[in-house]
Specification:
- With 255 residues, the protein is α/β, with parallel strands linked by helices.
- 30% of the residues lie in helices and 21% in strands.
- The protein contains 6 helices and 12 strands.
- An 8-stranded mixed sheet has the order 4-3-2-1-5-6-7-11, with helices on both faces.
- Helix 1 packs across helix 5 and helix 2 runs parallel beside helix 3.
- The longest helix is centred in the middle third of the chain and has 24 residues.
- The mean pLDDT is 86.
Length: 255
């Protein structure tokens, strides 16, 4: 069960930025890209299959993590990187190979970007905003958790620890680093909620076990606005729990 630092809204004039997004085609990346464009920012996207985009404010660049390839022009003019890339946690069974891919897809991708930043001494990048997950804390029952709580020791916790550690390596480059530990995202465009809803729609939904497990959550609109707020406010650094202040039990969520 999470408590989070409060990010207050601001009425200050926001300057447009050029933002490189990894994982832009994902659950968070697509609506976040739309919001950032609406706010006047220019977007660079990394893709394994780059194609010209119809929007003149979006540029697409090639990268391939498995082959350690990246278009060096992707960071030209960029001042902010939003790192969302990573193999889906729930897409397939957790074999040893799958676990390795889940971790490596997150750590090796940010390492590629840091290597490129280090090589291009004339870069303009000031900020790295990275996704993480509340899996960092592990299963803590009724314990109240915040950003200073210690991590768990299961696979998801270890994944988040390695993920965040790889992101934190950017500090030696003098970058502002923000990590958003994301809870279950509520959206009708996919993700965990869509999978949970399938049996419920068929009339066979039920809580898991006793159903008293706490589920922290955040609506997709709140999440993408949180990312946008961090983009616009340079004084924010460190870890933030991206979660509603009102967690639900498994029974409350499913029944």
């Amino acid at each position: 069960m999470l408590q989070s630092k409060v990010l207050n809204s601001s009425n200050e004039l926001i300057m447009s930025k050029t933002i490189l997004i990894t994982g832009a085609s994902g659950l968070i990346g697509k609506p976040l890209t739309r919001l950032l464009l609406k706010k006047g920012h220019t977007i660079h996207i990394l893709s394994r299959s780059p194609e010209p985009h119809g929007n003149p404010k979006i540029k697409v660049f090639h990268w391939d993590i498995t082959e350690n390839k990246i278009d060096q022009d992707c960071i030209n003019g960029v001042d902010t990187i939003i790192h969302l890339a990573g193999e889906g946690i729930a897409d397939k069974r957790w074999t040893a190979e799958r676990k390795r891919k889940i971790i490596n897809s997150r750590t090796e991708s940010i390492s590629m970007l840091y290597n490129l930043i280090d090589q291009k001494k004339d870069h303009q990048i000031k900020t790295i905003i990275s996704s993480s997950a509340i899996g960092y804390y592990g299963d803590r029952k009724d314990e109240l958790l915040n950003e200073t709580s210690t991590p768990g020791d299961d696979f998801l916790a270890r994944t988040c620890i390695e993920w965040e550690s790889a992101v934190d390596n950017g500090s030696v480059l003098g970058l502002r680093i923000v990590k958003l530990r994301t809870s279950m995202v509520l959206t009708d465009e996919g993700g965990a909620l869509a999978e949970m809803a399938k049996p419920i729609k068929n009339g066979i939904g039920a809580g898991l076990g006793k159903g008293d497990q706490w589920v922290s959550w955040i609506h997709i609109e709140d999440l993408i606005r949180m990312y946008s707020f961090v983009v616009d406010n340079d004084e924010l650094e460190g870890e933030f729990n991206a979660a509603s202040p009102n967690p639900l039990t498994n029974n409350e969520l499913t029944l």
